[in-house]
């Protein structure tokens, strides 16, 4: 279970970097990081960082 938490955190940190610094669309970022259902990606991102990926990107 700890290994899964580690990888989930790693994927979310990578998602955070890509949302902030890349021009990729959010669906592509989620899919590239293994989230096949966009809502799961958005919910996990929001739980970790307090904002959805879309709100985080818009905030700038």
TrEMBL record:
Origin: domain of life: Bacteria
Keyword Transcription regulation listed? The answer is yes
Q: Which PROSITE patterns match?
A: HTH_ARAC_FAMILY_2
The record's listing under Pfam families reads: HTH_18
Keywords on this record? Answer: DNA-binding, Transcription, Transcription regulation
| SUPFAM superfamilies membership | Homeodomain-like
The family database entries (InterPro entries) matched by this protein are listed as: Homeodomain-like_sf, HTH_AraC, Tscrpt_reg_AraC-type_HTH
| Protein name as catalogued | HTH araC/xylS-type domain-containing protein
Q: Which Gene3D superfamilies does the UniProt entry name for this protein?
A: Homeodomain-like (1.10.10.60)
Q: Where is the HTH araC/xylS-type domain?
A: 1-59
* The organism of origin for this protein: Persicobacter diffluens
A single GO molecular function term of this UniProt record: DNA-binding transcription factor activity
